[in-house]
Design brief:
By secondary structure, the protein is an alpha+beta fold. The protein has two domains: 80 residues, Golgi alpha-mannosidase II (Immunoglobulin-like, Sandwich), CATH 2.60.40.1180; 71 residues, Sandwich (Immunoglobulin-like), CATH 2.60.40. The chain is built from five helices and 13 strands. The relative contact order is 0.16.
Length: 178
């Protein structure tokens, strides 16, 4: 697992919790989130992690660029730079050392400072990545447990926080504090 992967570990952990409760997939085809966008029906070379992270992998050996589609329903931002990306089909640079990753607008992603192991990363403080859309609103959540115990969803020994941004104010609501 790369250091980058550790930075989004809280987001991924939350996605697996949601999948456990609802059955929704963690890795999703674009049409799962954008069923009204006919362009998404044919796309099999991109996917979402949860509803907010769009991955555009290079599938051709030696390629230094890749075509990516960005659904019109929302604004997208480059994960690394925060630069907005235009909707529609775009050609993306794809150097060997970069994962093309984009964040959907109106999202709150809980992240951590990366480290070399999951044990070390779990000790680092959280940080929030907030991507406001045209409404000026955003939402997200965090599921967190001790990383060791079993059946914590059933026993309630976990923390679940809902984040909402509205009118320039971030509100965190603790749904479960076990």
């Amino acid at each position: 697992m790369s250091k980058f992967s550790y930075s989004i570990l809280p987001y991924l952990y939350t996605q697996f919790f949601t999948a456990h409760l609802t059955g929704s997939p963690v890795a999703r085809a674009l049409f799962f989130e954008f069923p009204a966008d006919d362009n998404c029906l044919e796309i099999d070379a991109q996917y979402l992690l949860g509803a907010s992270l769009l991955i555009t992998p290079v599938l051709t050996e030696g390629a230094t660029s890749v075509q990516g589609y960005f659904p019109h329903a929302v604004q997208w931002y480059d994960f690394y730079t925060g630069a907005p990306v235009a909707s529609g089909t775009q050609t993306l640079d794809a150097p060997i050392d970069k994962i093309n990753l984009h964040v959907r607008s109106e999202a709150v992603l809980v992240m951590q400072q990366p480290d070399l192991t999951t044990t070390a990363a779990r000790k680092n403080p959280f940080q929030l990545l907030v991507t406001l859309g045209s409404t000026g609103e955003a939402s997200g959540e965090l599921y967190w447990d001790d990383g060791v115990s079993l059946n914590v969803a059933e026993t309630g020994e976990y923390c679940h926080v809902i984040y909402r941004v509205k009118n320039g104010v971030l509100k965190a609501t603790v749904e479960q504090n076990g």
